[in-house]
Amino acid sequence: MTSQASKRLFKEYRDLSSNPPDGVTAGPVTEDDMFVWEAFIEGPEDTPFEGGVFLAELRFPKDYPLAPPKMKFLVEMWHPNVYPNGEVCISILHPPGDDPHHYEQASERWSPIQSVEKILISVMSMLAEPNDESPANVDAARMWREKRAEYERIVRDNVRKSLGL
Amino acid sequence: MAFQSRLKFFSSPQVKTPIPDDKAPDTARSTPGTKTSCDDESPIASLDAPSTPPPSQRSAALSLPATLAMESSFELPDSTDWLATSLPAFEPLEAALRCEVCKEFYNKPVITSCAHTFCSLCIRRCIAIDGKCPACKSACQADKLQPNIAVREIATKFQEARPKALELACAKDNDDGETAAPASGRKRKREVADGDEEGRRTTRSRQTRRSTRPGDEIITHDMPVVIPDSDEENEDEYIPDGMVPCPICKKPMKEEAVFNHIPICPAAQKDTGTRKTRSRKDYAFPNPLQARRKDNDPPPTRLSGLHYPMLNDKSLRKRLQDLGIPTWGTRQQLVKRHQEWLNIYNSNCDASDEARKPKQELLRELEDWERTQGGRATAKESHIMRKDFDGQNYAMAHKNQFDDLIANVRKRAKETSKPREEKVESTPAGSSGSDPQPAQADKPEFTPDPRHPYENNEAALSSIRQKVEEANRTDSAFPPLSHNTKDANMKAAQDAGIHQDKIPLGFAPENPLGNPTRKVPMFRMPEEPVVDVESSTTIQ
Known about the structure:
The complex is a heterodimer of chains A (165) and B (540).
Chain A: H1 4-18, E1 24-30, E2 33-42, E3 53-59, E4 70-73, H2 116-128, H3 138-146, H4 148-162
Antiparallel strand pairs in A: 1-2, 2-3, 3-4
Chain B: H1 2-11, H2 20-30, H3 32-41, H4 45-51, H5 55-62, H6 66-70, H7 90-96, E1 109-111, E2 117-119, H8 120-130, E3 146-147, H9 149-176, H10 180-197, H11 204-235, E4 243-245, E5 252-254, H12 255-261, H13 266-280, H14 286-294, H15 313-323, H16 331-349, H17 359-372, H18 391-397, H19 399-415, H20 417-426, H21 429-432, H22 438-441, H23 458-474, H24 483-502, H25 516-519, E6 530-532, E7 537-539
Helix pairs in contact in B: 1-11, 2-3, 7-11, 8-16, 9-11, 9-13, 15-16, 16-17, 20-24, 23-24
């Protein structure tokens, strides 16, 4: 018996592999377990992340798509919306009804009609345009606001590191 | 524009003919846009052919890794199936007939008060979580949902027509031969590229769905023209190299794929299926009317929700019992199970009369849910003992395992017993047996004992002193053994070893040396009073 969740994940995997969006690759780590995925995200052009390829992990709950997955970068990321441990903090990944800060619009948050593809695209646009209103990494947010050059230097260093240079 | 032209191309009668030469003038006639592209491509078709595989191969490559595709439990038709065929415009059509939550064809579709349509079960589950419509996030109530009968009919009928249509759409490319496949492939690529340039990528499926909707209608009108009379002539003709035809539907495929294809061969179902549907096709909504005439059962009543905070555990359990669903688990699990039961039961009420399932079936679905998402799914649950858990039976059933585990532990203990004996001898009787930390046993504060058992044992005492010194000096967890200490304790260690070997499970050991702690089997109190030989007092 396969649950609705793994069926839907399988469909999304199929969609992503037959019709992949630009700059993103994703799929389950092993085919035995559809609930843990790995994703490669290209750094968007015209940003300090350009040229980088960032590995991230997606963990899906058993009641997916009712609840969103958790996403975590497995490489070093210096970004206002990424926690120092790599966890991504964007509104599309926040479950409905869980908004302690009341800064997000309900429409921005997770809904069962969202998908892995939309999450990854949102993350790409997050890389290009950080949201410093509710930073996950306060230091990075301050640096992004006040010392943009230094921020970009650190990001470019990380890009080089992620490529193993 | 490109879309329109392709449309004409498929519905025109010439399409059926397998001769490639006929095709070129036909497309050339359609519109200037495609004319140029086709004209461009036909001369180089033979060059393109090797690089662009025939559609069946292409779709195999597009779909998944072989292991996944073979898994029959995961046979998942998808709207993207159409992309590789000659009818890519069916992709948005099919996507429009699928629920946005589960991505399956609408199953018992209902419409919300905000006019969005979902599967009944999907939207009920969503509402149970946050009470909002997943599409527009406006407030939504489960009791405002209404069955969307038109969508239900369309989705069911489309599903019935799908295998045949897909088969035809795949077969057509083959009939057109080598010229057609590259041409349509090019066009498709070009389309995708356009989409990218306009930055439509993020909302692709939705936008294309909107933009092509009028086209879809045209196609569906034209469909019957294509379907009925192209059946036989089309199928058993062109078979590419390295492919064999399916014995049932004659669709060409790789030889190793035939075996997996046969159980799901659309033609096998077609023979019974499509004939019937075709005769029914003329009526717009025949079933509800017919069914209503025959139906004697009263319309099903939906269950209403409970206000959980108002109920204590006992009355909640009682409610579940009245509904005939399991009542084990924590309060939270009871609530979740009740919610899921409402979802399952009420969504069943949204089904058409003849598709409604008996309660037994629904209970099985609840059981499935329990296994995958409910109380039995979480690892946490397995550690909590249920109230009606029969411990004795479980112990009996698993006695062998327990015995094995005990034997293992004893064996391991024996292997380490030599080094342990050393320190055991040196420590007071009370603390040694269960002490897993060698370092602690060697600490000086453990040595004083009110009864001074080693007062007269000079060898033992000296070995203790030596160990303590070593421990203090090296600060190591366990001082290295020296021959000296070994000799001093040899006899006792040997005795202990022998005894351990011989003790059968569950026997209190006899204890000639008066060192009770080592020889007692783990977790078992000696059954007879133990005598301290030196002081001749009885310790209990």
